[in-house]
Design goal:
The complex is a heterodimer of chains A (314) and B (480). With 314 residues, chain A is mainly alpha-helical. In chain A, 78% of the residues lie in helices and 3% in strands. Chain A is built from 15 helices and two strands. In chain A, 33% of the residues are buried. Chain B has 17 helices and twelve strands. In chain B, helix 2 links the parallel strand 1 and strand 2. Classes of the chains: A mainly alpha (314), B alpha/beta (480). At the A-B interface, helix 3, helix 12, helix 14 and helix 15 of A face helix 1, helix 3, helix 4, helix 16 and helix 17 of B.
Chain lengths: 314, 480
């Protein structure tokens, strides 16, 4: 409200053409909410220092190279080097594969679980805790757990397959099964948060809509299709976008479980970026890759916004 | 419309923030650095003389043993006290480490943040990135036989790693070559002679198959396939067959040869034909050790410090391990990969601080009978329930005929806690050291893929894998 008043007064004074009056109005507006502005200033400083400055530095670094302590400008040299690296394209293929699989499983599974949990009215509290437990485990500890489960020699999963008279899997040791295995680990680790978000959205749906649907003779699936999904459309599309952004930056699972292998089949773009920066000591090339990643994610964000706008117009 | 525009901006900013966080944690390498030690009354001059014992100096250094190395920690503290008697006015602030003395990513981050101690630990392979950081000092004017006794006796291969364009930047503290570490108990159980480790790769393959046949999750041989360690071991194995990673001037890949194919084909056969290698891939440095410590692996290629890690950190029984020379194609290997550790000196130190750092490093790491070579003291300080590995078959860094080496070898005989007679084959069959290739970590990463394929993909084609790796490595070397 104070901002609206200040803006109105600013517009008035600007119309009157007095720069001094503008300054005075600004000072008055700031003075009226001094404490709020102080808090805001602190947050802005932190944001500038820890978010914007590194981002700007990264963009600058992506056009530079360092040799024997001397920094030189190389134009698009780092970008050309990144694009010429065969690992670059493989990393994108791997990343898209992971994102695609994670979107199918990591997106659908929590929603399905949320619907189920929502139906259990009495034991819901316990179920929420159960679902959220994996999130409370430190990520690396959770991931390491799967390292033992998925060991091709004596892992729990292969023992289970053996008991069921099913053929053993190589899990993380085979090029074809390594990425799906990482998707399983990632989905397990992140499902709790997504489920709770969906659950909150589900609980916001007015009960009379379901009652009306039931009176119209809708089955469970029809109620989900005609009531649940349309009512949670906004949260679903937001979660889908966040899921894409998060899964495209998958790193920890591959770093801990596969080291990017076998045969580079789990080297994602962020893993490659890490390698450039910390294993090859090529921070400038890593910066170029980071900027490319930014542009790609920005495209996804733009697509999301366009789709969402179309959806709301419909 | 306005609302949509602001939403667009918020979404773009969110994506940007998340995407860039990973790579944007560095500051410019071109900036100068400040040292944390402080030169006090006199800064001194670079006159090639040792530090005046009365000069008041404070220095900082990393690589001190941490909480996980009780015995080494006690010995280090003892050394600091002994050094204080020699140089009462020098204060040494030593920063401890836990686990691995240097974690490469952490080391790189530290360099980028100009956050090194006055003298800082590095591996031989770190040379380019340390020099590129601009954070290191030329110490040529400070090192000679008077300031560093035995300086002229350092092996040429070691000295090469300390220098660049004729200038000296570092002092060595360790030098090693790779050999074959094997489990004597598993050898015995498999009906093999524990006093005769295999000397050719054919023998390794045959022995590994016999050990794997013991069952119970035992693997005859294990090798790396990720985290740059796969390529590192590929380099060691091709060196052992007389091949090489790069050509003589370091401009082209030289591993796409019969020797390179032999390395991959053998690993593939061991994994998929005779079962000498088990199904669990080893993708990280540390993953190799627990199965070695628990007698689940028969043979492993490594430097002597592998035994130290198994005994001191993982509590394995030292009697279990023997060490032989790295195997060759039809007889002893023609070369073995060498490496080592050293200390660089941070830019901005005063002459007296450089002299004091040199004095401490020389005392702690380069004087037979003192510091890391005071085997009798290490033995006396060792706790009864915490084993200390004294007597490792290290090659050290001096000429074998030097006075330094004569004393070290003599001291080892009287104070060793390890069964040094189990390493006789390694010690008595010295193999020419081969230094690591340029852009080593990048090359190793590329060869990780080939090693990984050989041991995880039943349909792997070594020739194709090496051709792909060759073109990638040529591109890396062209962009150096």
């Amino acid at each position: 409200m104070a901002y609206a008043l200040a803006t109105e007064r600013l517009q008035d004074t600007t119309r009157r053409g007095g720069s001094q009056s503008t300054w005075t109005a600004l000072r008055r507006a700031a003075g009226r909410n001094l404490r709020a502005h102080a808090f805001l200033f602190g947050a802005l400083v932190c944001f500038a220092l820890f978010t914007w400055y590194p981002m700007i530095r990264e963009i600058i670094m992506s056009f530079q190279r360092v040799h024997r302590g001397q920094t030189t400008w190389v134009g698009l040299g780092n970008y050309r080097q990144v694009a010429a690296d065969p690992e670059f394209w493989q990393a994108w293929r791997n990343t898209l594969e992971f994102s695609g699989l994670a979107l199918v499983f990591g997106f659908a599974a929590p929603f399905a679980v949320a619907i189920v949990v929502n139906e259990f009215r009495h034991a819901q509290g316990y179920l929420r805790i159960l679902v959220y437990l994996p999130v409370m485990l430190p990520p690396v500890a959770g991931i390491l757990l799967f390292k033992y489960f998925m060991d091709p020699g004596f892992g729990l999963f292969n023992e289970a397959l053996h008991i069921l008279h099913l053929p053993k899997s190589q899990w993380l040791a085979s090029k074809s099964s390594a990425m799906p295995s990482l998707v399983v680990v990632s989905t397990w680790g992140n499902m709790g948060t997504a489920t709770l978000v969906y659950l909150a959205a589900l609980q916001g749906i007015p009960g009379d809509l379901y009652e009306a649907a039931e009176l119209d003779g809708c089955s469970v699936l029809q109620r989900i299709r005609h009531v649940t999904i349309p009512q949670t459309r906004l949260i679903l599309s937001l979660m889908a976008m966040l899921q894409i952004v998060a899964t495209m930056q998958m790193f920890t699972e591959a770093f801990v479980l596969t080291g990017g292998g076998p045969e580079g089949s789990t080297t994602t773009v962020v893993y490659l970026l890490y390698n450039y920066a910390f294993n090859y000591n090529k921070f400038n090339t890593a910066a170029a890759l980071g900027v490319i990643m930014l542009l790609v994610l920005a495209c996804f964000s733009a697509i999301y916004i366009v789709l969402e706008r179309r959806g709301s117009e419909d | 419309m306005k609302r949509n525009a602001s939403r667009t901006m918020v979404a773009l900013v969110t994506a940007a923030g998340i995407a860039m966080a990973g790579a944007a944690c560095s500051s410019s390498s071109s900036k100068g650095s400040s040292n944390k030690g402080s030169g006090n009354s006199a800064d001194g001059v670079a006159d090639g003389k040792p530090l005046d014992p009365n000069a008041t100096v404070t220095i900082t250094i990393d690589g001190a043993p941490g909480a996980d190395q009780a015995a080494n920690k006690a010995a280090y503290a003892d050394d600091l006290q002994a050094f204080k008697i020699l140089y009462p006015n020098v204060t040494v602030n030593a920063k401890p480490y836990v686990g691995q003395v240097e974690d490469p990513p952490q080391f790189t981050a530290s360099l980028k943040a100009h956050n090194e101690t006055g003298a800082f630990h590095a591996y031989f392979t770190d040379k380019n990135q340390v020099l590129d950081s601009g954070d290191t000092t030329d110490i040529s004017a400070y090192v000679n036989d008077q300031t560093v006794p035995g300086w002229s006796q350092l092996l040429p291969g070691v000295k090469q790693n300390l220098q660049d364009s004729g200038k000296t930047y570092s002092l060595p503290i360790n030098f090693y070559t790779e050999g074959l570490i094997y489990n004597r108990s598993l050898f015995q159980k498999a009906g093999l002679d524990p006093n005769k480790p295999p000397t050719t790769w054919d023998e390794v393959e045959a022995d590994a198959a016999k050990i794997s046949a013991l069952g119970g999750g035992v693997s005859g041989y294990e090798d790396y396939s990720g985290g740059n360690t796969g390529g590192w071991h590929f380099a060691g194995e091709i060196d052992s067959l007389g091949g090489q990673m790069v050509n003589s001037d370091g401009t082209k890949a030289a591993f796409n040869t019969d020797q390179g194919k032999q390395v991959l084909q053998r690993l593939h056969d061991m994994r998929f034909k005779d079962g000498g290698i088990g199904p669990t891939p080893v993708t990280q440095w540390a993953d190799a050790f627990p199965p070695l410590a628990t007698s689940k692996v028969g043979m492993f290629l490594g430097a002597p410090d592998v035994i130290q890690h198994l005994v001191e950190v993982l509590g394995a029984d030292p009697k279990l391990y023997g060490m032989g020379p790295i195997p060759g194609s039809t007889g002893p290997a023609t070369g073995t990969l060498a490496g080592g550790d050293l200390y660089y000196f941070k830019k901005g130190l005063t002459p007296n601080q450089i002299k004091a750092e040199i004095a401490w490093i020389t005392f702690e790491y380069l004087t037979p009978g003192k510091g890391q070579f005071d085997f009798a003291r290490d033995k006396a300080l060792a706790a009864p329930d915490k084993p200390v590995a004294i007597g490792l078959p290290q090659k050290f860094f001096w000429n074998p005929s030097s006075a330094q080496m004569t004393q070290v070898q003599s001291d080892l005989k009287t104070s060793a806690t390890l069964p040094i007679d189990q390493y006789t084959d390694f010690v008595d069959n010295p193999i020419a050291p081969v230094l690591e290739p340029p852009a080593a970590q990048q090359l190793y990463k590329v060869l990780d893929t080939a090693m990984s394929a050989a041991m995880t993909n039943a349909n792997a084609d070594p020739a194709k894998l090496l051709s792909t790796a060759e073109s990638q490595v040529n591109s890396i070397l062209a962009n150096q």
